[in-house]
């Protein structure tokens, strides 16, 4: 697209959040502002995206879903105000906002007692509201409880010796003896549940939920051993109850075992997060006929190549032959790696401002300047 073209250039700005500094909608708005400064007649649309972790709820709302507030149990049991996003009978639910790491009181980890109950609370609210297509993002979890808390909120009962209800948290699963599903929310049987999951870890073992992700949630060496053994006992109980052993399902270890419980008990489907979200946000419809896509996230690095939002966006755009560039806070990928991911170029805040603190404190104006550069390089 050049300045002499007769048609207005069409640009889609579809970034993920810059974690800890600016949400995806803010990133998109700043980039758009810079582009239209240079090309005032450009048709620039914004579509904030997410990959199933924090920011998933906000991306759905930005795409036109209606937020439905709900109070739930946070990761350590205290009340938390969150929401699900609704469009018709479809509900988008974000575990991170309900009972994730960011909801830990004072940021203090609770590796043995943190619970996924808050996620179940949101599922109940969505089901009670008549939603029957549930899209669940489980990134950013604080718990390693095998999804037991989530199931308890939905009416299941994890029981210990003598039929006593278990306490919350993964540590308590060391004492689990049985699982009663007779009180499970009746609408679960009518619902289609799809879980955004970007890992292939099983529930237990050397690559399982406790050993790989437990330390990130505050678990020390002894905690990890306890949690892995407890999850194994939980898997035994669930297998006896459902007549199927799902502990080795790829992705079962996601969110401290929520992936396992969702598949084994709720008959959920696990799908890559960014693919699921792009379908939900109708990305293919929005991008059709475009001349350029701008995506991005805070750090373009090796992790970006493994199912993160910018690479997912680039793959979809590439299917339609639309060029893609990315904005980021910092760039740690080579040109060859970017090209291999379908990204034609990357524009980093640190290229404009070498002071990291300034980039973190005021990313908006810098992103607008990157938008200007993109317009000069790609549209003029």
Automatic annotation (TrEMBL):
It holds the Pfam family Gly_kinase. The keyword Glycoprotein does not apply. Transmembrane segments: none annotated. InterPro entries: Glyc_kinase_flavodox-like_fold, Glycerate_kinase, Glycerate_kinase_RE-like, Glycerate_kinase_sf. One of its GO terms (molecular function) is kinase activity. Signal peptide: none annotated. Keywords: Kinase, Transferase. Belongs to the glycerate kinase type-1 family. This is Glycerate kinase. It comes from Nocardioides vastitatis.
């Amino acid at each position: 697209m050049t300045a002499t073209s007769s048609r207005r250039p069409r640009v889609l700005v579809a970034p993920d959040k810059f974690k800890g500094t600016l949400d995806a909608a803010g990133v998109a708005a700043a980039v758009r502002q810079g582009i239209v400064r240079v090309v005032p007649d450009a048709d620039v649309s914004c579509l904030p995206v997410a990959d199933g972790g924090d920011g998933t709820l906000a991306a759905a709302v930005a795409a036109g879903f209606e937020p439905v507030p709900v109070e739930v149990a946070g990761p350590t049991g205290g009340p938390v105000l969150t929401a699900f996003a609704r469009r018709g009978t479809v509900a988008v639910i974000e575990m991170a906002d309900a009972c994730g790491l960011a909801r830990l009181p004072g940021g203090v980890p609770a590796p043995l007692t943190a619970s996924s109950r808050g996620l179940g609370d949101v599922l109940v609210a969505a089901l009670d509201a008549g939603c029957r297509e549930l899209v669940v993002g489980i990134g950013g979890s604080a718990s390693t409880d095998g999804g037991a808390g989530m199931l308890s909120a939905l009416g299941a009962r994890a029981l210990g010796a003598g039929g006593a209800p278990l306490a919350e948290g993964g540590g308590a699963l060391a004492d689990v003896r049985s699982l009663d599903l007779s009180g499970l929310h009746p609408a679960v049987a009518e619902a289609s549940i799809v879980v955004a999951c970007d890992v292939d870890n099983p529930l237990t073992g050397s690559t399982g939920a406790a050993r790989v992700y437990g330390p990130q949630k505050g678990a020390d060496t002894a905690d990890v051993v306890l949690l892995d053994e407890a999850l194994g006992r939980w898997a035994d109980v669930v297998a006896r109850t459902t007549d199927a052993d799902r502990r080795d399902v790829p992705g079962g270890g996601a969110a401290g075992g929520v992936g396992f419980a969702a598949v084994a008990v709720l008959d959920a489907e696990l799908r890559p997060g960014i693919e699921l979200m792009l379908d939900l946000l109708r990305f293919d419809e929005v991008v059709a006929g475009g001349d350029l896509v701008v995506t991005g996230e805070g750090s373009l690095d090796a992790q970006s190549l493994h199912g993160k939002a910018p690479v997912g966006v680039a793959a979809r755009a590439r299917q339609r032959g639309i060029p893609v560039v990315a904005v980021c806070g910092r760039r740690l990928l080579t040109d060859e790696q970017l090209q291999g991911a379908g990204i034609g170029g990357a524009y980093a805040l640190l290229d404009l401002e070498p002071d990291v603190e300034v980039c973190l404190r005021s990313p908006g104006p810098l992103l607008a300047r990157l938008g200007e550069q993109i317009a000069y390089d790609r549209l003029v």
